[in-house]
Amino acid sequence: MLGSRVVLAWVMLIGVLVGAPLAIVTPMPAVVETSTYALLGLAGICYALGLMLTYMALTIGKVSIVAPIVATEGAVAALIAIALGDTVGVVAGVALAVIAIGVVLSSMERATGDVPAGDLDLVPDAPIPEPVAAAAPGPRTHTPPVSDREMRRSVLLAIVAALVFGVGLVASGRAAAFVPAIWVALAARFVGIAVITIPIALSGRMRLTRAALPLLIVAGAGEILGSTASAWGARESIPIVAVMGSQFAAISAVAAFLLFGERLARIQVAGVALIIAGVTVLAGAQA
Length: 287
Hints:
Elements: H1 4-24, H2 34-60, H3 63-70, H4 73-83, H5 90-106, H6 148-175, H7 181-202, H8 212-233, H9 238-245, H10 248-260, H11 266-286
Helix pairs in contact: 1-7, 1-8, 2-6, 2-7, 3-6, 4-6, 4-9, 5-9, 5-10, 5-11, 6-8, 7-8
């Protein structure tokens, strides 16, 4: 019912509306270094750019290929943080690697058909067609096959998106050491408002339906609260939080199975099992 860019635009806006009151009651420190503002800006730019690159990859590639690549953002952030001086134990490091592999496997989806009426469509936006006279119903069209060139381009875009998201996660974690976590999350949404929501609103595509509204509210609120929790946890360990946070792919797959009856491929089940094993070992190592 709504294209992915429109959904992202609403998620950014709702995130700001939810986060602003929390930020007001959690004031910034009296003195904030210029470098911290730079980190906040970098985190916001990476957040918006990563979303745009992911969207571009999905417009020409397959979700089953793009999603697992983008899901490596947590592992990318962990490697960057370790390269910059963060440390993890050997056991914890192996557990994080197992979790990262499980995340990639669990996000490998089957190709799906058209989205039924009433569902929240997160496929790429198509141009709004001019009004035409009603036509007799006919067979539904299918997405044309992806060429090798388009596939390579989508893979490259997904890889760049994962790298950009990884840099943004590290910047967010470093900034959270100096300012409240809610401000770190809110700063990224301000950038998202500027580069996603405002352009879409000005183009007249900021549409909304009654059925989509509650889903958008949950998505927007959950997204900023999750980002705030991630920034807060990153004060202790960026590598661990980055990898653990990337489990949204696995959680989404399991939730779709439990709530909507969607089937999990064997490779997804294997991925979830690896995540459970990795998290168990990681919890023991941290304890």
